[in-house]
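Quick log. Single chain, no ligands specified.
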Amino acid sequence: MLDIAELSRKSGIPASKLRYYEEVGLIRSVGRNGLRRVFETDVLTRLSLIALGQVAGFSLAEIREMLGSERLPEIDREMVSDKADLLDRRIKELTALRDGLRHVVTCTAPSHLECPTFQRLMRIAQTRQAMRGSEQKKARTRRKGGGGSRKASSLGRD
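-> predicted structure:
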């Protein structure tokens, strides 16, 4: 058993975040030692899974859904596959952007605005910015209760 201070020290996660994780159902204490919450040692594995999920780009709501409330996580393979596909697309986009920026450095056009590659980069950037704005507007609508998607869960702070 670990009290919250020991868990914080071993995991490197501040106690305030551990309390928040418990509040939103990501981890569960098994009792108290005085005023301190007490956790089973296997919560360290769960915290590692949460960290991995966050690094992979999952929201806390998605992580909570995959981990479930029981001891053994129920990792949704389709959700993980979808996230891997998203990362593949993002890697391709970033690779194309990097290659375009490298071209700008060595471009022989008299002005960057005359370079077809640079013009294409500007069009892509403008399209992505418009798409991002649209996605943010949809997310705000979901958070305000207008969307009904499962991502609009009770976890407002990811």
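Confidence is low (pLDDT under 50) at residues 147-158.
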